[in-house]
């Protein structure tokens, strides 16, 4: 039986459905069993969260900030245990799991300090008109397996800060760090404010259509986002959908500082073994500098130490799950069969665990699946171009648009080109940087809505106009 619990209305309870296995991707062993929630338990959680909403939403914003700062204290006190859980369920190296936990608590403190306040839009002889921001009610959070702990925090804290209550459902691949987080939160928050149910896609679908839930905040694939949107239509739930990306990076012609930029590009492409929504997933390089850039990237790839994230000195962990690894293998083999050159990596390691070393693919046609589909793994296809217009057209010929980047010592020129990218964040000489005060979200099929900063907080509220006749 699982040593983890669901938390429903402040109570730790076992799942009513059969426990499921959480696999350690570094050795394919069963790391832990995880409880699985029944439909009845979902109803109980919604009931508890609706009851808790009455008093939680009545607190002042300052009082909620004080509560949430205690959550940050709890995370910091338990950071070592949390990071080790993340490594064993997700696969990333320990230093990166420490970053995930550390950034998580910093995110809690910053986001809970934000205030939306009341905005006066008219104060005349005729009337005074104000915009107030009200919480929505019970919100469902559904999260993916790449940054499980951090993304849960991105969902939970703005929701609670603005007076909503919540039910979380982590990915069934990586549920344990979120179960632990919500357990810690329940040590300092009133009962029912934050509930957690673990389970698979059918539980997510039931949450999306539940009449007692007012909003779904979802991070995951575009396909699942479409299902959620349909399921949420019955009671017109509000939605924040942070979906897939296939970010392009363009190195402008005659680029100086190639050593510095290729190091940052490598980091932006292979962060978390490439399993980052806004990782750089296709790189466009001018023909005159193409070979030089490829060589520098291969050298960087060869410096990585691949292995179990708990082992000393390891910088590069496994892919998180078998299905994702199969997709990566399939896309690389398709490219290889169609004439692309695999410059390094390109094979699963012959050992237990889902290890696939950092892989650079050159001489690849833009139309191949490895470029067109989100590979979400440790591979970077490098595509040659002759003119900047051609590079821009290839970068924008894509149905998703999360992030993108342009690289050059000529910052003015690079900024002009960056603004022509069809994406939610256009970086110049950087990629995949997200910070708690900078709004983040995708365009096209990368999603709906914004996270972080004041704009992100607003998404968890609805406006009420107060119109006073004078
Ligand atoms: P996924 O869509 O398969 O699963 C995400 C979550 O949705 C899981 O908790 C899963 O159980 C749940 N789910 C599955 N089917 C559901 C349904 N029909 N209804 C409701 N919930 C359902 O995604 P994943 O494979 O876990 O994560 C990888 C994807 O997430 C990639 O496409 C990546 O780009 C994207 N992602 C996006 C962002 C962003 O901010 N835009 C961040 C991280 C990951």
Helix content: 25-40%
Supply Rg.
23 Å
Overall spatial form: globular
Bound molecules: nicotinamide-adenine-dinucleotide
Record the strand order, biggest sheet. Answer: 14-15-16-13-12-18-19
* Rounded mean pLDDT score: 98
According to DSSP, the number of beta strands is: 22
Strand content: 15-25%
CA-to-CA gap between the ends? 66 Å
Low-confidence spans = none
What composes the largest sheet?
A: 7 strands, mixed
Structural class: alpha/beta
Q: Helical segment tally?
A: 15
Describe the overall structure.
This protein has 470 residues and is α/β, with parallel strands linked by helices. The chain is built from 15 helices and 22 strands. The chain has helices at 39-56, 61-77, 79-90, 94-113, 148-161, 176-186, 201-209, 222-231, 258-270, 290-302, 322-337, 369-372, 388-396, 411-418, 453-458, and strands at 6-8, 11-13, 17-24, 29-36, 119-123, 127-135, 138-142, 165-169, 194-196, 215-219, 238-242, 247-251, 280-286, 341-344, 359-362, 379-385, 400-401, 403-407, 425-428, 443-444, 447-448, 461-469. The strands form six sheets. Strands 14-15-16-13-12-18-19 form a seven-stranded mixed sheet, with helices on both faces. Strand 3 and strand 4 form a beta hairpin. The longest helix is centred in the N-terminal third of the chain and has 20 residues, at 94-113. The chain is globular, with a radius of gyration of 23 Å. The protein starts with 5 loop residues before the first strand and ends with a strand. The mean pLDDT is 98. Nicotinamide-adenine-dinucleotide binds at residues 142-146, 169, 171-172, 200-201, 204-205, 208, 219-221, 224, 227-228, 242-245, 277, 374, 376, 402, 442, 447.
